[in-house]
Design brief:
This protein is an alpha/beta fold. It has 10 helices and 12 strands. The chain has an 8-stranded mixed sheet with strand order 3-4-7-8-9-10-11-12, covered by helices on one side. Helix 2 packs parallel to helix 4 and helix 8 packs across helix 10. The longest helix has 13 residues. The protein is globular.
């Protein structure tokens, strides 16, 4: 139901009308204890080479086009206002097939509008993002009783990050977002998922431990038979070029787990506990 399609900054942007904004959870999200998913957008302009969402049924475009298009649910906020009562007190994962804090969110403000609609109904809410724009909404996040913001920090190396996430925000901006969220009293999760090649496991583990995150999750580089869906052949080729494998991942996990409790893969994706 595309209303409009036009290129913007090299991205094909579609405006669509959705039938619903809250979808019953499925897959690893349902197994983690979530009742609903909420996706203000379809597609993701960060275009991470390893992203499992590119291989899910919701993506009806060629995998090779992942990161080059975005569908904006123009009626998302209106739907959220009408439907938010059904997620009252239930566990919501935002988002499962997109990032709620893409650059488009600066102008579209769908995520913020949905948060405003959900706030009176107080769901158990996890926001999954690699977008530092999340700090814009601290004023709303502080008002949720059961909330966690999961930030993706998949490596300690900006050079590595650029190879796998060419359009995503720099790591230092994400670390700064974590600091600001923590200072504001907003619970934070750190997701080293998937765990990209790491240059200094000890220093990285120390930085993560010092962040005092509510949850820390690691995940080995997934493929079709593993966690999630699939990952891109280009990402796997870069991983192999950088000589990052199971042994290197396990070494990092051993170092990190010596400093704190961590979760691996699916086990780390669960709703914030009720107080």
């Amino acid at each position: 139901m595309t209303a409009l399609s036009f290129p913007r900054g090299g991205i094909i942007l579609d405006l669509i009308e959705a039938k619903s904004i809250f979808t019953p959870a499925s897959g690893f999200i349902a197994r983690g204890g979530f009742d609903w998913t909420c996706n203000p957008y379809l597609g993701c302009t960060f275009g991470c080479l390893y992203c499992y969402a590119a291989y899910l049924p919701q993506n009806r475009r060629p995998v090779s086009e992942w990161g080059k298009w975005l569908s904006v649910k123009s009626n998302a906020v209106e739907l959220a206002r009408k439907q938010a009562n059904k997620v009252a007190g239930e566990a919501v994962y935002m988002s499962s097939v997109t990032d709620p804090y893409l650059p488009a969110e600066r102008s579209q403000m769908l995520t913020r509008g949905i948060l405003e609609a959900m706030l009176p109904h107080q769901p158990q809410l996890v926001i999954q993002t690699r977008g530092p724009l999340v700090i814009r909404d601290i004023d709303l996040l502080q008002q949720f009783d059961h909330l966690r913001v999961n930030l993706s920090i998949p490596s300690d190396s900006e050079d590595v990050r650029k190879r796998f996430e060419p359009k995503a925000p720099p790591l230092d901006q994400r670390w700064l977002a974590i600091e600001k969220l923590r200072a504001a009293g907003v619970p934070v999760g750190i997701c080293v998922t998937p765990t990209l090649p790491i240059m200094d496991a000890i220093a990285f583990a120390n930085r993560i431990s010092q962040a005092n995150a509510a949850v820390v999750v690691t995940q080995d580089f997934h493929a079709a038979q593993g966690f999630g869906a699939d990952t891109g052949h280009e990402a796997l080729a870069i991983r192999d070029e950088l000589r990052w494998g199971r042994a290197e991942y396990q070494h990092f996990v051993k170092v990190l787990s010596s400093k704190m409790h961590i979760y691996e893969g699916e086990a780390g994706f669960f709703p914030p506990p009720k107080k």
